[in-house]
Fold this sequence. Notes:
It is a single chain. This protein folds into 2 domains: 3-115, 3-Layer(aba) Sandwich (Aminopeptidase), CATH 3.40.630.30; 168-311, Aminopeptidase, CATH 3.40.630. It is built from 11 helices and 14 strands. The chain is elongated and about 70 Å long. By secondary structure, the protein is of the alpha+beta class. The chain starts with 5 loop residues before the first strand and ends with a strand. Bound molecules: coenzyme A. The site of coenzyme A has 18 residues, from strand 4, helix 4 and helix 5.
Amino acid sequence: MRADDFSYHILEYPFPDDFVAWYPYTKSERMGEHDRWRQWLVRVVEEGVPGVRDQMIAARDVESGDWVGVVWNSVAPTCPEIAHFGWFYVEDRCRGAGVGGRVIETCLSNLSADGAKAVMLPTQLENERAIGMYYRRGWHLSITDPNGAVWMVREPADYYEYYFTPEGREPIRAGEPEPADFVALDYLLSRPYAPVRLLPLELVGNRRFVSFVHDWDSATHVVARQEDRPLAVGAAVETEEGSLCDVFGVDRRAMAVAMRALVEIVPRPYADIAAHDTMRRGALEDAGMRYLSAQVVELAGAQINMARYIPV
Ligand SMILES: CC(C)(COP(=O)(O)OP(=O)(O)OC[C@H]1O[C@@H](n2cnc3c(N)ncnc32)[C@H](O)[C@@H]1OP(=O)(O)O)[C@@H](O)C(=O)NCCC(=O)NCCS
């Protein structure tokens, strides 16, 4: 069996019926406890998800016509430079023949022809074979969770900073998150600093992959964007003390825009910021907040000095 015994296809919604019937990641027995993701994949293959273009790069046995391998990718039309990639699978009987490699390479050349520069994917650290395949094709690990979930990104050097830095003095506006923002926001949150920063807001682990579920109900979110490009995300969750707010981005001006809009819409807003985080503290001050008090919190066994901010 060789990779050439198979044909490779780029499928989009509406997906062929025999592909939908075969697609492995909508099967309850395979997805086990990940039913939320399974339901989202059912939406992808059966209904189509608004705001993004989901594609399946699939391999088919030329002789029998059976589907045998697949990988998914997703791109928002407003930021075609960034793509999600994942749910990679090859039928047991066809593994090791180069089909998976050909599926990845078909996907990458198709994305690159469409203008994608950064391609990100989630996987598990234990999945050595897949991680090795990704490494050899240019991905690097960007986040590793203690539970073994990892996030890998394939991108040009310095692209992350470039993408999330606003252009000139063009206006940055705040608004509600939209489906087309989600791929870029996942890229924004693909850095180790982001999950630590947004930890109290539960935007960590599986919840970080916001575009997978389009679920923003557990917190109030504000996105700062320049034209269509998301630059910063602010989030607030209700606590006994009020609305705990935080913001993530690489640019102080964009973060301030998101934070200013957020504190206007949530009741009793406050923020706890690591005392040494001068950029974020500056963004909060630019957003009209003021330093209230210092406190020490324990995080993963470390004592961290925090500065509390409230609106002026
Ligand atoms: C991961 C998977 C899709 C790969 O498909 P495949 O058709 O077997 O892949 P290929 O034959 O093209 O390539 C196998 C790769 O594993 C490498 N490999 C082979 N034997 C290996 C071993 N014992 N240990 C580690 N790597 C091995 C090969 O060198 C090759 O990598 P390369 O193309 O970079 O040289 C398939 O194994 C699968 O479906 N696994 C279960 C689902 C899964 O884990 N998905 C990934 C989730 S992120």
